[in-house]
Amino acid sequence: MAISKVWISLLLALAVALSARAEDAAAADVEAAVVEEAVLTLGADNFDDAIAKHPFILVEFYAPWCGHCKSLAPEYEKAAQLLSKHDPPIVLAKVDANDEKNKPLASKYEIQGFPTLKIFRNQGKNIQEYKGPREAEGIVDYLKKQVGPPSKEIKAPEDAATLEDGKIHIVGVFAEFSGPEYTNFIELADKLRSEYEFAHTLHANHLPRGDSAVERPLVRLFKPFDELVVDSKDFDVSALESFIDASSTPKVVTFDKNPDNHPYLLKYFQGTAVKVMLFLNFSTGPFESFKSAYYGAADEFKDKEVKFLIGDVEASQGAFQYFGLKEDQTPLILIQDTESKKFLKEQIEAEQIVSWLKEYFDGKLSPFRKSEPIPEVNNEPVKVVVADNVNDVVFKSGKNVLIEFYAPWCGHCKKLAPILDEAAATLQSEEDVVIAKMDATANDVPADFDVQGYPTLYFVTPSGKKVSYDGGRTADEIVDYIKKNKETAGQAAPEATKEAAATEPLKDEL
């Protein structure tokens, strides 16, 4: 199921944050003289042939301007050199997704940010996200495991020693290694091998807390949280995948600086369920009473399509910025529903958690919106728009509005800023034209606009026609576009069709 776009920024920012330490180390004093010859360079003209030729290939989709891509490049090349000697060789490749001719590839494989790495198996019939390390040795170790059997056999108790190592392990217990149940298990293991460790055995008594009397076949999932072990006997592939997905996330995910919790954080934000988040200071105040009450709430609402998270204020600054929260509001509880609406209760008491959640599920709460204050003075050529006045400025002004959604850190946005200023100054005498901008990191972007990267520009006419800006990026080209496409009395603007170009993906937000 596709991830809702409202989570893309936070989810990918988390992914970048989790690998930042490794990437920073790679960027420091790397061997810059490595000649790039082991990594295959792919593009629109040879991509399909390469995927068809190699039964297993790792492909990096990158952009030349991306800092994280530059840090990864020497490590990726070192890994490719080492893996070229593997038997059989393991192939690493790269695609410049910023190249115009390769953009259809980036679109086909849903590349949302850079670098994105994907594993292609079986001539591209099985495609998985690469979720391993970003330094050479880690890449090598990770990929060697990926090309071996998807599930290892447990023949003796010592083979099961790793099942309690703090990771999630899925073990199939069978009477024989054949039949539809075993076939389905191996099929799913191959599909999910980049996320979990799989094993299979004929002897349940070899497993921790094992029992020779276990009725086979079954799947036993070992995890380092909650009930520690959970079983399923449904070997339908979809049902088995759902069982693993539901069982491999803690009842309450912890958002702190412990790296062991990071995989569960990513999984939490990937989901499409309603998300409940409690933020407070873990080191001060009545933390234990809040934790107890919150876990109780998770039990009480376990039958709802809802996920729970408890976050330490110190570790959650990125989330605070994303949601527009402030530390003096804590302890606070936040709900993000499936329609991207948010509900907030600040300065909450532990004993209020359950009753407030009941109000939400009973439909008695009103959503809140993240917005900067409406500017008291807004007399610059490019008008500042915030979430609380975007409807009035863009849709109710009766004017032709070119609006830019930007991020303060975005390089493309910084280059575009003086150009928009010049275009707006040129058009100041046109009373029916407005050029505006919104900081999309400090304001909730209206659902009318699909903002997947920065800058994103839209042109909105007085009649409400909304099109993605497809003009040039010089002041003269912007002015010409607006004059050609604006609506005047009795005249409708022609519709533009192309997507906005030269955006920085949300992944580079950190």
UniProtKB/TrEMBL annotation:
Its EC number is 5.3.4.1. It comes from the Eukaryota. Residues 1-22 form the signal peptide. Keywords: Disulfide bond, Endoplasmic reticulum, Glycoprotein, Isomerase, Redox-active center, Repeat, Signal. It catalyses: Catalyzes the rearrangement of -S-S- bonds in proteins. This is Protein disulfide-isomerase. InterPro entries: PDI_thioredoxin-like_dom, Prot_disulphide_isomerase, Thioredoxin-like_sf, Thioredoxin_CS, Thioredoxin_domain. Disulfide bonds join C66-C69, C410-C413. It is found in: Endoplasmic reticulum lumen. GO terms for molecular function: protein disulfide isomerase activity. Participates in the folding of proteins containing disulfide bonds, may be involved in glycosylation, prolyl hydroxylation and triglyceride transfer. Belongs to the protein disulfide isomerase family. Pfam families: Thioredoxin, Thioredoxin_6. Its main location: endoplasmic reticulum. One of its GO terms (biological process) is response to endoplasmic reticulum stress. Residues 492-504 have a biased composition (Low complexity). PROSITE patterns: THIOREDOXIN_1, THIOREDOXIN_2. Residues 487-510 are annotated as: Disordered.
